[in-house]
UniProtKB/TrEMBL annotation:
Pfam families: Aminotran_3. PANTHER family: ADENOSYLMETHIONINE-8-AMINO-7-OXONONANOATE AMINOTRANSFERASE, BETA-ALANINE--PYRUVATE AMINOTRANSFERASE. Gene3D superfamilies: Aspartate Aminotransferase, domain 1, Type I PLP-dependent aspartate aminotransferase-like (Major domain). Keywords: Aminotransferase, Pyridoxal phosphate, Transferase. Its cofactor is pyridoxal 5'-phosphate. This is Aspartate aminotransferase family protein. It comes from Microbulbifer echini. The keyword Plastid does not apply. GO terms for molecular function: transaminase activity. Belongs to the class-III pyridoxal-phosphate-dependent aminotransferase family. InterPro entries: Aminotrans_3 (IPR005814), Aminotrans_3_PPA_site (IPR049704), PyrdxlP-dep_Trfase (IPR015424), PyrdxlP-dep_Trfase_major (IPR015421), PyrdxlP-dep_Trfase_small (IPR015422).
């Protein structure tokens, strides 16, 4: 019996069409996880695997947190589901208030979703409906950014800027894109690169072309995650904020990765000192334990929906999900935010970020390394492409890491790290050493 299979049959493996996975390769050589605790997974063949990406940027507080499990089971025993529309339950209101306390001033109304992708769609729809409410119905155009990732639904893919996520689906919605901020002169910057604030001026060109009277919103990740950790150049976000303000365009921060500790604070908005009109979250909100997202808007946006005429039982926003503000997800989120606060994990993440920065940049002189970037407790390497095989090397390196007992993510031509906030510095050291070995092995064709 293949001990990598956790007792699964080939027909069971074949039945599951896995997301964002090379299914042919995976089903030949599966990487199956059977348990998790703290910073470690257990693989089907019984090995501890260090969780170098906190799940998918989700589990910063570590796995198997008893307080979250307890909160979930208590909530289940009391109220397992409540209709999401027209009726409420206590945990959602408590969680909404709790989230607003962590947001920058003014972002204080919360709409719950099931995921980051849903948060994105919700934010884009709110932006367009907002301008209609204001009598500016022509403001519909949505602007994203090259290399941006905003989930997988049609709106998110349309504003997203990763070609591979769009190409096979045919035409997306009509959107425009700002240029990305990955400049070669910024290679090997530590944290925010110095160069690139001027790239925000491209928004002026888009406005020139389409006119602000037709533009609803700009959506960007303050730190782009999925494209391989692109921290914003110094001054860039502020410049975007100013242009949006001058031209009555809403600014949406997609903080699905960056909210709740990844950058050492509750939000990237706080770290970068720029407050958007709408802020999307998910992932770390429940420590990855239950799917949930949230869209936080400026009070003025919410109020403008409430100020419509008509009877007060009339819906202000015909939008929502069967599982919006699911009681069990709310319980998981409340318990997660308790842990983050009680264990001081934003601070811990900020402290560890210096260690990660230090260690990761030591890889600079290895073969195959084109660039290294870091921001908070997130880091990425760009790997030089093998001739004719642009994506092969990151994949091979990630496989070698798995064999050595480390999980990291490979995506496009990058390798991505986002260790848990509760990691120890020796564990980060071990991860980086294993990464150096794996890179050398792949460079040497081993
Ligand atoms: N936005 C951003 C910035 C993300 O990083 C992600 C997920 N990686 C999403 C949206 C989509 O979230 P989900 O996978 O929960 O739908």
């Amino acid at each position: 019996m293949n001990d990598k299979l956790a007792g699964l049959t080939q027909t069971q493996l074949d039945a599951h069409w896995m997301p964002y996975t090379g299914n042919r390769q995976f089903k030949r050589d599966p990487r199956i996880i059977t348990a998790a605790d703290g910073c470690y997974y257990t693989s089907a063949d019984g090995r501890p695997i260090f969780d170098g990406l906190s799940g998918l940027w989700t589990c910063g507080a570590g796995h198997n947190r008893k307080d979250i499990a307890k909160a979930i089971s208590q909530q289940l025993a009391k109220l397992d589901y409540a209709p999401a529309f027209q009726f409420g339950h206590p945990s959602s209101f408590a969680l909404a208030e709790r989230i607003t306390q962590l947001m920058p001033e003014g972002l204080n109304r919360v709409f719950f979703t099931n995921s980051g992708s849903d948060a994105v769609e919700t934010s884009l729809k709110i932006a367009r409906a907002y301008w209609r409410k204001k009598g500016l119905a022509s403001k519909t155009k949505l602007i994203g950014r090259s290399k941006g990732y905003h989930g997988v639904n049609f709106g998110g893919v349309s504003v997203g800027g990763i070609g591979a996520n769009r190409a096979i689906f045919g035409p997306a919605l009509s959107t425009s894109h700002l240029p990305h901020t990955l400049l070669s002169e910024n290679r090997f910057s530590r944290g925010q690169p110095e160069c690139g604030a001027h790239l925000a001026e491209a928004l002026l060109d888009i406005i020139d072309l389409h006119d602000a009277s037709n533009i609803a919103a700009v959506i960007i990740e303050p730190m782009a995650g999925s494209a391989g950790v692109l921290p914003p150049p110094e001054g860039y976000l502020q410049r975007l904020r100013d242009i949006c303000e001058q031209h009555q365009i809403l600014l949406i921060f997609d903080e699905v990765i960056t909210a709740f500790g990844r950058l050492g604070s509750a939000t990237g908005a706080e770290i970068f000192g720029v407050v958007p009109d709408i802020l999307n979250t998910a992932k770390q909100l429940t420590n990855g334990v239950i799917p949930m997202g949230a869209v936080v808007v400026q009070q003025e946006i919410y109020e403008s929906f409430l100020q419509q005429g008509g009877p007060d039982y009339q819906l202000e926003l015909p939008h929502g999900y069967t599982y919006s503000a699911h009681p069990v997800a709310c319980a998981a989120a409340l318990a997660t935010l308790d842990i983050l606060e009680r264990d001081n994990l934003f601070k811990r993440s900020a402290e560890l970020a210096y260690i990660l920065e230090d260690y990761i940049h030591q890889l600079r002189n290895l073969p195959l390394i084109y660039d290294i970037r870091n921001c908070g407790l997130a880091a990425a390497l760009t790997i030089e492409s093998a001739p004719g095989e642009p994506l092969l090397r990151p994949f091979l390196i990630a496989l070698k890491m798995w064999d050595k007992g480390f999980y990291i993510r490979y995506s496009g031509n990058t390798l991505q790290l986002g260790v848990p906030f509760i990691s120890r510095s020796e564990e980060i050291d071990g991860l980086i050493n294993a990464l150096a070995e794996s890179i050398l092995e792949v460079a040497n064709g081993q």
